[in-house]
Amino acid sequence: MDDNEIKKRLASRAAEYMMFKDDEEDTEAPSDTSSAGNVIVFPDFEKLKNEVEKMRTELSMLLLERDELQFVICKNIETEYMLNLGSIEYKAYEAQCTALRLKRKIELIQAKKNRQEKVIISAIEEVLDNEFAEYQKQLDEQINKMNDALKRSKAEVLTDEENKELKKLYRKIVKALHPDINPDVSEAQVNLFDNAVQAYKNGDLGTLRIIGEMVGNSPLPEQHKDALTQLSEEKDRLQNLLKAIRDSIEEIKSEYPYTMKEILEDKEKTEQKKQELESILSQYTELISIYQAKIEEMMR
User: Fold this and answer.
1) Quick one: which of 79, 139, 176, 258 could link to 149 by a disulfide (CB 3.0–4.6 Å)?
2) Are residues 203 and 55 in the same domain?
């Protein structure tokens, strides 16, 4: 066999080997492996990432809705309620507390008399102070609500544009700093968020502007072998949070002061509520007179 024939056969075998190697690489290499760096691309990664981002956005909107309910809408409802009906409601509740206290005073005096013990009014009053401490606490809370309502009614009101900016900034801050959306925020960031909540409550647009400049959106995890698991767990966590916040919103709408909204929006219902409270006040005022007369008679 001459040299030329040997060269031809070697070249033929080399070509066959390269063809076989190409086929082998095509079989073994995953179709989703990139030629640069062999990075695995998960088919569902981008889809899941987008879902989580949408859920974060939805959660930030629900948190804004809940906080607007708590800190703005309900506060406005309560302010209007206190200014329209708060004073007569306070008087009615105060009369109720006084009547119940006098009734209890009669019982304590009668108990002393039944045991033929000396009736010391100052000692009985001390017992009553302890027993009715919770009633007094509620009366004080009503006074505080009235003071807050008066203060709020005199506060500077934001324009529609300012209010829109306030909500936009707050939602941005919620999305970036709220611990429910961002479990890994630092203590300093939590404090910054608390300041933002307080500023939102007070309608402090200037402070929210400053905080808004400091924050950006929290990034989602970059693609790596654990990222898909991370995103899946985050999706489950956000689903639970979304349900909890929706439930919280429904609860707020089912309680005072939001339940007074319907009454305040209807003048007839407002007047009807006022008459009910005046009737209660009248009944307890009458009872107070009866109980006071009874005590005077017992102490003769």
Assistant:
1) 79
2) no
Predicted confidence at residue 128, as pLDDT, reads: 97
Q: Do residues 63 and 200 both lie within one domain?
A: no
Contact 67, 170 (CB under 8 A): yes
Q: What is the pLDDT of residue 23?
A: 47
For residue 126, count other CB atoms closer than 10 A to its CB: 11
> How many other CB atoms are there within 10 angstroms of residue 277's CB atom?
19
**Residue found by looking up tokens 């013990």 in the block:** 117
| Nearest by Cα to 197 from 181, 215, 174, 176 | 174
* Same domain assignment for residues 146 and 163: no
> ∠253-254-256 over CA atoms, to 5°?
85
Tell whether 14 is covered by a domain.
no
What residue type is assigned to position 223 of the chain?
Q
Decide if 288 contacts 95 (C-beta within 8 A). yes
Burial 82-103 (b: 16+ CB within 10 A, else e): bebbbebbbbbbbbbbbbbbbe
Is 77's pLDDT higher than 90? yes
Total domains in the chain come to 2
Q: Are residues 136 and 96 in the same domain?
A: yes
Co-location of 208 and 66 in the same domain: no
**Residue owning tokens 């409601």:** 89
Domain coverage including residue 298: 49-155+268-300
Average pLDDT over residues 36-64: 79
Per residue in 242-268, pLDDT (tens digit) is 999 999 999 999 999 999 999 999 999
Instruction: For residue 7, count CB atoms less than 10 angstroms from its CB and return exposed for 0-12, middle for 13-18, buried for 19 or more.
Output: exposed
On whether residue 6 sits in a domain, the answer given is no
Is residue 38, in this structure, part of any structural domain at all?
A: no
Question: φ and ψ at 259, to 5 degrees?
Answer: -65, -15
